Amino acid sequence: MSKNQNKTGSYSFFNCIEKNFDKAARFISIEKGLLEQIKACNSVYRMHFPVKIGKEVKVIEAYRVQHSHHKLPCKGGIRYSMKVNQDEIMTLAALMTYKCAIVDVPFGGAKGGIKIDPQTISSENIEKITRRYTSELIKKNFIGPGIDVPAPDYGTGEKEMSWIFDTFLSLRSGDVDALACVTGKPISQGGVRGRKEATGLGVFYGIRELCHVKEEMYSVGLDVGLVGKKIIIQGLGNVGYHAASFFHESGAIIIALAEREGAIYNKKGLNVSKVFLHLKNNGSILNFPEAKNIENTEKALELECDILIPAALENVIHKNNANRIKAKIIGEAANGPITPEADEILDKKGVIIVPDIYLNAGGVTVSYFEWLKNLSHVRYGRMEKKFRENVNAEFLKVIETVCKKKISIEEKKMILRGPREIDLVRSGLEDTMINGFHKIRDIKKSLKIENMRTAAFVLSINKIIDSYEKLGIFP
Ligand code: NAD
Fold first, then answer.
1. Domain boundary among 165, 189, 213
2. Which of 26, 121, 222, 278 has the greatest CB tally within 10 Å of its CB?
3. Distance from chain centroid for Cα 18
């Protein structure tokens, strides 16, 4: 048993990331101490604060971890869950550092967490807790547009981000850049169009790119393209729901969806928006018409399929179920869904694993766009939309004159259209995910690395080393 394993022979979540980092470090020739600096968490803030809930005073445990300051501000989501602990938040902060480097987002990694179960607490009390947490962060200078910028994660969304912004503004009134203290806000509060679905859409773009590479598809016995691929998704929250919708729209077949209470299965495919409506109306995905219930939700991961997308929590694929996984491709939409032991088993089976530090980076990419929007105080497309439409109209006139042919009104509408915010955000995200995929693949091929995860870590660590060197910290 290694010194990093606990009594049951499992690794702590942070050790899992360290293990992945060490595998990549074998391909990098730089002094060991410098690699240790990149691996270490720079600042860990663990707090306890009282909040009055009903007639009782409850002591709330919470964290904010800044993993790396090689670029500022730090950036990372905030999760609300009873499973929140220091090890988990440190790990997720580290993942953010590596993720940002891969997709060229100029931030250091961070993460926050509050140990509460949002499903059992009223919205009013969640607001109280969120506001108190924010003021604790402000007191210790752990939040700010140039310091540390939170975002949504497991158990949080636009509402919580709005409360964070409002609390920050009330304590820092007059800060003209206050909107940029948090991302994932509603549009009316300075959010950017396309942020809500960004992580799921990024997952879709990443997997679609993989499915277009003949060499990769033939290596696992699949045809090129996404159409007709059988997909299973675990978690129908922000990431899972949007990923499922984009896969469904593109012609892939969602054969199973798994939630906490159980899973549903239909080999001919599930209509994602209908399942979501059913979930909203009934509080459960179970008993969806035309689908079979699977009581033990974990069993859904083991069904025959082409692509498995864990989009709920960490460590769901482990040494005890890895051998039973039949998917040929696993896309890590959640953070850390595969333990290192399971990773080795799946690698030996030849499964293609698209790693979290690349695949779920769509959220932070669009958060970066939101942050830029907030600092520039202008909506994307506002300055150029009409100008582009005018130029396109002139261009079209010339074409019609030269060709002596009139273009139909429908075609005209399409050609004349200037870019809206959502168009710019989505094209920026698509470009980022496509580029990231090919950079990882190029490194994998040129260094003859066995899997995408190690190649992604090599790409990321090299970029961090480069920015430390440019800062003059490394000799
Ligand atoms: P969410 O809270 O919106 O959704 C999580 C979903 O998983 C919920 O519907 C929940 O009921 C379900 N779930 C919980 N336990 C489950 C279980 N045992 N089996 C099946 N389903 C279960 O959270 P999210 O924002 O979608 O985040 C999901 C994952 O993606 C997390 O690992 C998070 O760190 C990661 N992630 C999120 C973002 C983002 O932008 N929200 C960005 C990057 C990574």
1. 189
2. 278
3. 20
